[in-house]
Fold this protein.
Amino acid sequence: MADLPANASGKLVPPLRPELERTPIDASKLGEIQRTLSMGDKIWGNEAVRKFSIVIVLLACWQGYAMYKSDPLVIPTAIESHQALFRDIISGEVLVYTWYSIQLLLTGYAIGATLAAILSIAATFTRVGRDILETLTAMFSPLPAIALVPLAMIWFGLGKEALIFVLIHSVLWPVALNMHGGFRSVSPTLRMVGANYGMNPLSYVIKILFPAAFPSVLTGLKIGWAFAWRTLIAAELVFGVASGGGGLGWYIYQAKNTFETPTVFAGLLMVIVIGLAIENLIFRTIEVRTVRKWGMQN
């Protein structure tokens, strides 16, 4: 401050910055700044094309290895497995099994996600709720859902209720953990906004917590879906037919008993196709229209 010059009235004033004149840089020396993309660049820039190319490479590796082994009973070719899948799709057999599994999955998934939301909200507003959620998740989250199959069979019998019970367990804990973690990560500024507006608890959850924590909530829902889908197929392999019907797991189990290996692979392909469809058509659409649109993810 003491080095600053003073004006006539004795006040300190900052020095004037000297004028600088820069010589313009020749743009031709900067290299290529902008160029028109070729058709190949545009095609390869499409994410769907890149992912489809990965699938094609995997199928080609499968086909080549199966032809090398030349043992259809152990590993059929990709062509034979796809033929078995298309045959059962046209006949409608695999579609019936698939619809049965999806119905069970949606029921267990909806109940599990609802219970997870209730526990997470209670943990956000009360200390006791937080203690209950943290204790239950520490106890049951490491417990594989398929390990509860014997108990489910004793408690509910060989019916849909037993499968739904196992599905609820597989969905509840990952969704609750991610949802509660997302709620806790909401900034204090947003929390004070809700408090200043005098929101009731329901409005506070809907308008403040869920939008701010939605990336974590969506991640939990995706993990819960993956856990539920694989648990359902494994449980159906153990339960077999439940309440006079069976799902994709039972379809695979029947094919294994009759040594129809291409049909076994056809069932596995159907499981993979449904998983890819749910991930890319439902969760990806939700992600693009919410968290990416809001600028919460890159």
Observations:
- Residues 85-292 form a domain with the MetI-like fold fold (CATH 1.10.3720.10).
